[in-house]
Amino acid sequence: MQERGGAVIGKALEGAVGDASWLGLLPLSIEGIVAATLVAIGAFPAGASGATAAAVFPADVFFDLKQSLAFGRTWPWVVAVLCLSVLARSAVFTSSLWLAGGRRGSFAPAWFRMAGLTACAWVALVPAATLILSGTAIRYAPFLFVGAALGVAASTYLARHAFRQRGDAAGPDLSAWLGYAYLIAVTGLAREWMSGRTPVIVIALVIALTGPMHGLVLLRWSNSRRGKGPRGKAALVATILAVGAGLGAVAYDRYLNEIPRARETRDSHLYLLGGVDSTSKTGALTDLDVRALGWRPAQVIVLSYRGLDFPYTAVDTHQDLDDVARRVATQIELPLMPGDALLGHSQAGLIVDRMLAAHLPVPPRVAVMAPPPTDPPRMELPPPGSTGAGAPAADLDRALAAALDAIGAPTYDASVPASPVNLDPLAVPHAEVDRLAVWALGDSVWLDGDWRRTGEINVVSISDHVGAASDERAVEVVGRFFAGRSVEGDESSWRSLLVNAIRYTFEPWRP
Q1: pTM for the structure as a whole
Q2: Angstrom distance (rounded) from CA 22 to CA 102
Q3: Residue 409's CB: how many other CB atoms inside 10 A?
Q4: Residue range 289-303, pLDDT digits in tens
């Protein structure tokens, strides 16, 4: 019976990898054990961000790159780590193919060629790593989307080129690599769920067991012939459909949808507070028809970052937020009426936090669209000229900001005072102020698991950062909230599940 069961398993595995030698599993299995040991002693992260530590080339190289940049203190240290990565990662991949192919040819020349390709992978993956590191630090999700696209394209090319060193092996195509990336995301989800719930040694054991899983993927790809690589299109089609649906929903809300006016008209004041890079006349709230919320335009007061009767520019939105909070508070007309409300966008949520913390006047109801998360990012970027963990990543972030500035694009620089790495955001509960947070799905809502603001009603809008202000559902929810009607949060809805699905997909690729 045992022999028959072993034969069935053997045939199943043979169908998965073809005629490749099982010895090809050994190097990645050993690498998984090494990664598990490093997790057990605290050198590697136990959560999802370490899921690529023992993956198939070049995902393993990307792990070394992003972790060394995010937590290295100096560039020499980063270069030293990456040099060690070249030797170790190229040896694992080369020996896997060498053993899987029946040890054909000489090992040393193949290792030398693979070491050169691994070094090239540094350069090819730096743009993706820079965007993902910057997006994580400044909590700007579009950087992660673009970085992911660049990373998948570069990884697919590098992987196919690496497998061709065997001769006639095709390696993975774009769809196969996407499927593998999602497989890594699933293992990352499991590790993230286990982190904090189980001992580290249990997580390490799971990591060790995933080594052979990565080896099976490598054997499957190494057995594919040129022009006949693994081509399961499901991952590619699903990705295209999901991205297309999201972009379509955003475009519809932004350009085609007409939001109906409210049936009732209020006699109170509506205060509008723009976000980062807004001005007195431009910004996400500029095109909002306040009649959809129940106010006439004459009842609206646009709050200025500079003070009463002073128009403000985009530069003024990058000032110290405590000073801005005091200037905004002087523009609130006293005494406050029961129906007064404040609608903000983006960092307006942080300004309201500071107004409440300083006991400054705040309208009884506050709603903020696309607010920033409440906790600082997990990755720190030291200021210019300072050393410390994340200094190399900070250099890349400033280089990215300079490049964007050179082409006339909006700059997203971690050096500005209002950047998440330079402040400690607050979430101040207040018994006399009801608050609503409308999170944009395409925004930083999914960059961390603690995106919900304590003491507030939290709902999710299927939109991007700017589009949240023109999303029909978001405006309708804000209108009901300002009218005092019941509004339920999305913590247990399908929107919350969608947020977490996207968050865990990106979790292994962030530091």
Answers
A1: 0.86
A2: 9
A3: 10
A4: 888 898 988 899 999
